[in-house]
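In this supplementary section we document a worked example of the pipeline. Step one takes a protein sequence of length 677 as its only input; no multiple sequence alignment statistics are reported here. Step two produces a three-dimensional model, which step three serialises into structure tokens for compact storage. The input and output of this example are shown verbatim.
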Amino acid sequence: MHLTLFTLAITLIATICLAKSPYQSVLQHSRIRGRQHGPNVCAMQKIQGTDKKYFTNCKQWYHRKICGKPTVISYECCPGYEKLSGEKGCPAALPLVNIYNTLGVVGAATTKMYSERAQLREEIEGPGSFTFFAPSNQAWAALPTEILDALVSNVNIELLNALHYHMVNHRLTSEDLKHGSAFPSMYQDFNVHIHHYPNGIVTVNCARLVKTDQHATNGIVHVVDRVITAVTNNVHTFIDTDDDLETLRTAVAAAGLTQMLESDGHYTVFAPTNEAFEKIPPEMLKRILGDPVALRDLLNYHILKNMQCAESITSGTPLETLQGTVLEVGCDGSDMTLNGKAIIQKKDQLGTNGVVHYINELLIPDSAKTLLELAQGSVITTATKLFVDAGLGSHLSGSEALTILTPQNEAFKEGVTMTGELKKLLKNHILKEQLSSGVLYHRQELETLGGIKLRVLVYRNSLCIENSCIAAHDKTGRFGSMFTVDKVLTPPMGTIMDVLKSDDRFSLLVGAIQTAGLTELMNQAGPHTVFAPTNDAFSALPKADLNKLMGNPQELASVLKYHMAKEILVSGGVGSHTRLKPLQGDKLELNMTVYINKVPVVEADLMATNGVVHAVGGLVKMLEETGTKVSIFTVKRVQYRRNLKGRSARKKPLLQNRHKKARLWFASCFLEKCPLV
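The serialised model returned by step three reads:
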């Protein structure tokens, strides 16, 4: 069973790797999935409730979904093959006939009928080498009645021209249909535009090829899912001539993007309608339209670097915009989505240099927003309200270069209200320059609007400013940046000694520090981390032991130094097994629930100008080394091994894994009475 699966996997990988194009890769995958049903059988996925079928790729096969909708698997003949009565699979190649007759057997009978009406039959039955992008029967049925009537009412001109636009005067296989290529059609040499996407979808003028490479004696037929029309205008023409895009037209001109949208390229423009602009608060819209930098960022955020037809999307895909960030372009059933929202109301307006999709909601990038708009558009609701209540809104909505530290909602106590002290504290959450977290470095100093200096602390898995650690990616606005942090900031106030003296919980510790002669150390520049035993911690000691300790300044100093480290470590920098080197002794071990050598931390992150204090509920003791129990059986095996002197058996390993080898080592020490280290 395992060998069969392994062989299938290797075959699948090898076959797909040998495929020449994304379409061929998907086709090969479909062949492999269908081969259990016979030769030349392809697995197809059909979206339930529709007629849309796709060759299957790995992701779609396992998820059984396309555009978020469930699919059913069917097994059909691969392109160019047909069934034979009584035979398994599709063993026979389709008869090679001319294009006219090929149309009848590949699901394009309506195109065949209209070819005869337009007197195109003789041409596609005769000599030549043509490529015919033939609309399927369903494509003709979906054509608006007024358009179809206009075509069939003038078959010798309009219908013939339309069919000629679906033809190229030489043979093009799917391998020749390269992404971004264009070929002159047989209607006045107007180009047909090809896009060949990484997911295997191939489009011509945004119509998906549903059956490819149907070979004929005088060319090749590719069946497409819609009737295509000639493309003569660039994407800017849509913006320039459609009254629904009047506001966008004004914005494009003001931002100086007209020339770009008229030039060669393969753009995708998500064009906001007038209605989309009207949904934006008037003050915000006026500010953006009056700011050339913000306006250009706004519009570039609506333009993709590559052309994306609606039919090319089968799942959510992040795509880069000209603004530099990404949009997630996806689909939900027949709806095309942007960032998960179905806001596209008109799709696939094709131009010579790209495609336009009309949207009914304006997309505003962070880079066009003020700090206040950034905060209001985030999930940080409590801090945002408090900044406004504190009268700091003018700073956040202006053009000052600032960085705001916004604590997560859970960092605040429920029902928090504005006070003078809180207003002062929030002012110290605003830094006087626009920063990126990527340029911060250890022990860097940052000045706040409140006039104090904050320290940057860099740890292996966290980046902190004082006690607050950054909890999400930066948001960079027009003039400022926003850092989401996990805690309300505690600015440093005084030295470690000042912090201890100001808190009644540490009165016994303050006396002990003075007795031990460590006062000057606690006032020095540092940095220091102090695990400060509370009065309760000292009181928990037997009275005689406490008196003895307090009466011996030298021993007391040693004990206290085991509670101190010459570096600064806040709780956000503590990992699963963090170690500190104390001023006295070997090591201090901390874990993520913040225990220090198994003593619980009562309150963390009391920030001082020369370090940090963590209140602990007991005196920290050195971790005792623990031995390993060794059975008498292991000891006897060691003795036996030592009795094998000079014999070949001595070279054979008695123990095969690390655990047993460790026990053997301890057993050796046990026999020799060596000390544990």
